[in-house]
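User: Predict the complex with pyridoxal-5'-phosphate.
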Amino acid sequence: MTEASRLTLDLDALASNHALLRAAAGGAEIAPAVKADGYGLGAALVAGRLWDEGARSFYVARLSEGVALRRSLGDRAATIYLLDGVTPGAAPAIEAAGLTPVLNSLPQIEAWNSHARGRVLDAALHIDTGMNRLGLRPEEAAVLVGAMDRLKFLNITLVISHLACAGEPDHPLNARQRARFVEAAALFPDARRSLANSGGTFLGEAFRFDQCRPGISLYGGGPRDVPDTRIKAVATLEAPILQARVVPRGESIGYGAAFTAQDTTRVAILAAGYADGVPRAAHPRGSVWFDGARRPMLGRVSMDLIAVDITDCDAARPGALMQIIGPDLPVDEAAAAAGTTSYELLTRIAPRARRVIKGG
Ligand SMILES: *Cc1c(COP(=O)(O)O)cnc(C)c1O
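Assistant: Here is the predicted structure with pyridoxal-5'-phosphate placed in the model:
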């Protein structure tokens, strides 16, 4: 019985991508980003397998994600870095869950240091080198080192920064950020260093430092936002055909009559729509994969349905599954057709898709 969209998660593909990133990272540690519920695939699931593959450090964004990950890892003593850092009032909960906050600002440093008072607590420090999102400016880091009592109860184990253009190897900001990072990190000579996300891990030895923090390329997205044949699809989203029909020449399909058949057209109606994570913006360039070929989507994406051209495709019958993303339709390609990225596509796959797990 196939009546709903299906999301197959291939854990062996995840392990293969992990091995690829490990090779690209040289001797640097791979500390997977598992924020946003493991990029929509299930943080407990992906972190469990990545632990089995040797990962011992993970990154989450929100406190709630860190608490859930700590619970799911049980007695597996991973380091869990909390990218949001010490938000107001959060210090006791961060400590209780055994999370290592990434301190992003002087007030966050103050909050963690005063929470630690009398003891010593681990922390990572985020230096902003050009993203202008989170992190201390390099000049603030220098001031901090001149006022060491602000760090009196803190053990800074790691200094991180984040690249804005790692997917574009020739972008001049990469070298500029690296230079600023090296200079600021030198203020904390006992701390390990981490600069690279997925894209950064492939920028060469100069960007790897002690630890790389890949996310998207573990989960099947290319490090440059385009399909990369070295990286395997981890998520396969499929939907069954509910109905096959013939649309006569001159008639339209779907809301807004946005597509008109120029000829007699055979159409499959699939049980997936934007409520399953198919972007509404997939119209008019999106397609699905079925029976050896890409089949264009026709008309607007509805909440629960999409229409697909199956002219000259005899195999398209009710119940047959069509691939929306997966090994034959890379997530980067599907994302580009909808004007978005693999990151957004994966994190928007909805709970309505039935999860199937493949691999050990
Ligand atoms: C999300 C994130 C990563 C992982 O980035 P990818 O592009 O998915 O590899 C690494 N570091 C930080 C600070 C992040 O926010």
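The mean pLDDT is 97.
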